[in-house]
Automatic annotation (TrEMBL):
Name of the molecule in the record: Stress responsive alpha-beta barrel domain protein
InterPro entries: Dabb, Dimeric_a/b-barrel
Taxonomy of the source species: Bacteria, Pseudomonadati, Nitrospinota/Tectimicrobiota group, Nitrospinota, Nitrospinia
A Pfam family annotated for this UniProt entry: Dabb
Highest taxon in the source lineage: Bacteria
Domain Stress-response A/B barrel as annotated: residue spans: 2-93
Length: 95
């Protein structure tokens, strides 16, 4: 199994921006064959070290992750994140 985790810090943390990102991320559920699990979390602590939103996804293998990365449903989510977030950090690992 491959886990793909992304943490997002919003450029302007407004409720609308948080909701837009969360809705876009959750909107991928059931639309990408290789995506086995998706969880979105909103930070509640709001410390200076905190990121605002986290995405955790699972795939069967590296090929599934690559398919997700190129998938047309994923592309507008990437674009939204690039527009309203900076920075983002990613970790991909196998278990």
């Amino acid at each position: 199994m491959v886990k793909h985790i992304v943490m997002f810090k919003l450029k302007d943390k407004t409720p609308d921006n948080v909701d837009s990102l969360v809705n876009a991320l959750e909107g991928m559920v059931g639309k990408i064959d290789s995506l086995r699990f998706l969880e979105v979390g909103r930070d509640f602590k709001e410390s200076e070290r905190s990121f605002d939103v986290v995405l955790t996804t699972h795939f069967d293998d590296r090929e599934g992750l690559e398919s997700y990365a190129r998938h047309p449903v994923h592309q507008p989510v990437i674009q939204l994140a690039r527009e309203i977030c900076h920075p983002t950090v990613v970790v991909d690992y196998e278990i």
